[in-house]
Amino acid sequence: MPQASPSPRGTGQTHRVQRCAAGRGAQSGAALLTAMIIVTLVAALAAGMVWQQYRAVQIEAADRARAQAVWVLQGALDWARLILKSDARGIDHLGEFWATPLAESRLSTFLAADPSTASADDGPEAFLSGFIEDAQSRYNLRALVAGATVDPLEERTLQRLCGQVNAPPGTAAVIIDGLRAAFPTPASGASAPASAPASTPAASSGPLQPAGLDQLAWLGLDADTIKRLQPYVVLLPKATPVNLNTAPREVIAALFDNMNLAAAERLVQGRKAKPLQNTADAAAFLPTNVQIGSGRASVDSSFFIVTGRLRLDERQLEQRSLVERQGSNTLVLARERVSQLLDR
Predict the structure, then answer these.
(1) Is the pLDDT of residue 198 over 60?
(2) pLDDT tens-digit series, residues 142-174
(3) Contact 336, 319 (CB under 8 A)
(4) Ordered DSSP codes for 84-124
């Protein structure tokens, strides 16, 4: 028997049901996609807010730690100034209290000594160390620009020092030429005009005036040469004599003609038993043909370098200060801070 064909009404209803189901499926997919986009945006915004808050906390903590470190190092510098002030009379030698370095100590141990403060375990992981160096234990490069011409004895002193540290040939000439170009001096017999300032400015075509030994790179010295010379030379604001009670044997051997390291070592060993009371006492340890020129050697000092190091968590802040002792006053002439990240 022939089968009856479906009625047009049933077919239309079926098509409408399928279209409604397809529409509802499309709407559900669009809603799901919209929800996923909204969740992604909210998560991104939340992550950005959390990162900004974390960043702000880290910056605030870093600023607070820096401010605390600066104040602690300033206190250490004031303490060093008091030590130098209390030792302002008499000779200066390596057996005095100022020459004893401060070993690394936890700051909270100092706070625990005060019963009004918290216990040592509540303090930060901060460690302080430092030491004071006699700046006049080194050869002062300022002597090379003290006059209208270079003193031949000062030139020979620098040449001997450069030879002892195995500096490249010609290093002494580079230093002398660079310093004299940076610190021009009036010609011999010439008088400055009445309207001229008290300090002589650098020549407009010359190099910048270095304020410290690290800045000798401006004169053309490489970092290795500066590192070799650093323990033995210094650049102070004015010419100063070398303290024979604190100078190393290399500086003493280079300071005088007809000297050698063996004679300088005898002086170094002799001053350990008894510090030199005056420059005449050094003659007992030096060769007979060595002449101690006036103004080139002494047994006391006015310039010192104070170094303080603060280790806080994973960072270390070092402050180096050049101070001048003027009677009962100790003035800070220069200050340099170096911050570095420690390896863990």
Answers:
(1) no
(2) 999 988 899 999 999 999 999 999 999 999 999
(3) yes
(4) HHHT-SS---TTSGGGS-EEEEEHHHHHHTSTTSPPGGGS-
The whole-angstrom separation of Cα 122 and Cα 112 is 9
Q: In the prediction, which pLDDT does 171 show? A: 94
Q: Amino acid identity, residue 331?
A: L
- Distances, alpha carbon 150 to alpha carbons 37, 161, 219, in Å: 79, 16, 17
Please give the biggest Cα pair distance in the chain. 147
Please report the DSSP string for 129-161 in residue order: EEEEEEGGGSEEGGGGGSSSS--HHHHHHHHHH
* Three-state DSSP state, 242: strand
**Residue 5, pLDDT score:** 56
Both tokens assigned to 309: 């190091």
Residue 12 host element (H or E): helix 8-86
Q: Find out whether 132 and 246 touch, Cβ atoms under 8 Å.
A: no
| Distance between first and last Cα of the chain | 94
Helices of type H across 201-336 = 223-229, 249-255, 261-273
Q: pTM higher than 0.85, yes or no?
A: no
Counting every residue, how long is the chain?
Answer: 344
Interatomic CA distance for residues 77 and 280, integer angstroms = 34
Beta bridge partners of 102: 130
Angle (deg, nearest 10), helices 152-164 and 171-182:
130
How many alpha carbons lie under 13 Å from residue 41 in its C-beta half-sphere?
Answer: 6
